[in-house]
Amino acid sequence: MEASTIKLSKRENEVCNLLLTGNCTNKIAELLNIKCNTVSTIKKSIFYKTKTSNLIELYEVYKQA
User: Fold this and answer.
1) Tens digits of per-residue pLDDT, 44-55?
2) Residue 62's CB: how many other CB atoms inside 10 A?
């Protein structure tokens, strides 16, 4: 799957970018002023939409972009 064909929401893109730059769930929640559970839910949505199951696979998808 190519990163250019993945349709993420604005918030999913924000979380995805923060994940890919090495931020943990707690830090992302703090930066975006949202709850950790919300970040976890968004991460699940990102993994589903990108057909990945972890950060390494997600990084591989976006590294190719």
Assistant:
1) 999 999 999 999
2) 16
Q: What Rg do the C-alpha atoms of the chain give, in angstroms? A: 11
- pTM of the prediction? 0.89
> What domains sit in the chain, N to C, each tagged with a CATH number?
7-63 (1.10.10.10)
Contacts by residues 6-12 (CB-CB < 8 Å, ≥ 24 positions apart): 6/49, 6/50, 6/61, 7/49, 8/46, 8/49, 11/42, 12/42, 12/45, 12/46, 12/49
Q: What are phi and psi of 22, to 5 degrees?
A: 95, 10
